[in-house]
Amino acid sequence: MATSNLLYCLSVLSLLPFIASITIPLSPSHPNPNPTSDGYQRINHHVLSSLTRAYHLKNPQITSTTTQIFSHSYGAYTISLSFGTPPQTLNLVMDTASNLVWFPCTRHYRCDNCTSTGSPAIPSFIPKQSSTAKIVGCLNPKCPLIHSTQDLQCQDCDSDSTNSRNCTQICPPYFIRYGLGSTGGIALSENLNLLNQTISNFIVGCSLTSSRQPTGIAAFGRGPTSLPSQLGLRKFAYCLISRQFDDTEKSSTLVLDSASDSGDAKAVGVSYTPFLNYSEIAGKNAFSVYYYLSLRSITVGGQRVKVPYRFLVPGPDGIGGTIIDSGSTFSFMTGEVFEPLVAEFVAQVTNYSRAQDVELLTGLRPCFNVRGAETLSFPELKFQFKGGADMALSLQNYIALVGDGDAACLTVVTYGSAGPEGVIGPAIILGNFQMQNYHVEYDLRNQRLGFKQEICT
């Protein structure tokens, strides 16, 4: 890829293959190289990032192999992927609610609010060092998929013209907003290297500038340019190790499976619930990349929370429904769901006093004083899904000890009284904190989600 082409792209920006089953390491992930040591501030960061992530998701812009998954202190999990010839390896955040795989690109990668003075340079993919990197042209049939439109206009590139083959216009630059940042760049066609297999003509974003997004995204959503779609996966599954809001060398696994011939067979001990086919809501095509689930009820200590039905089922106005999102830390619930949940939870917790000072510091509620308690006792939180699949969470999946461990808080967030108005999108977003030590299976062939509790090591 010529340097002149890259400079041109920078100036512009300023204005299915076969694989078997692959297992990849999955790790917890911190864009800030110097995370605060203040436990309350760190929890508050996760609250804010979960809320802004929820706002983005509700208002979107646009044979077996195994890999490791690593956990990070900023609330995300990453995997390592290799692109190009020769391969260049980068750590990317696993995100089940986005469509485009992208990575930091070029030596002059600009990322605002990503590093502090003296921090090492952000690892980037260097296109000119790869003999297989190609800029995606405007007439490439995958270009409209990146921009979620079939009406993409390519100037001087009339598809009916005899000169269309000589068209040099590139696919228009992309711009993506996330909960705590954004990124923009150009599309590349490149080799994706998975162990001993090479997937050619893989569409990936070459990001030239970002805000608060130093690490690229491994998109696992339902969109046409996501990793599962481009690899033709029948299934993928992961197990998220327990997180303590710090970086760790420990990892669990992510399995990519495109050769599954299990049909409708169910794995032992796994509960399944169907995905909802929600391809378009109130004109928001971006919602189609989410994995919507049919949540029937929420119970606290066996008592059913009185949740208005219209928030459990997505409506034609784009409001309601439940999605699962590996890119969110804490689960989000809209106020009409969150407030009844908190009321039921507080009513049942009579063995601890409220820690409202901690609630103000962290942004979580309710929080309780547990100083001196040898063991913790809280009512069980359970999600019941269509198909009889019940997710009874362990205490570590919905209660977090904060500060010096003197307080315990419910790890579900919502907008405050001054929250955004007119927000549509899912009413409930299940985050990765709630998925710790769960085997989570995305059975794309049978359009269902499977899960079971499991120690992830």
From TrEMBL:
InterPro entries for this protein: Aspartic_peptidase_A1 (IPR001461), Pepsin-like_plant (IPR034161), PEPTIDASE_A1 (IPR033121), Peptidase_aspartic_dom_sf (IPR021109), Plant_Aspart_Prot_A1 (IPR051708), TAXi_C (IPR032799), TAXi_N (IPR032861)
Matching CDD domains: pepsin_A_like_plant
Domain Peptidase A1 stretches: 77-452
Family: Belongs to the peptidase A1 family.
Name of the protein: Aspartic proteinase nepenthesin-1-like
Keyword Signal: yes
Species for this entry: Tripterygium wilfordii (Thunder God vine)
rRNA-binding found in the keyword field: no
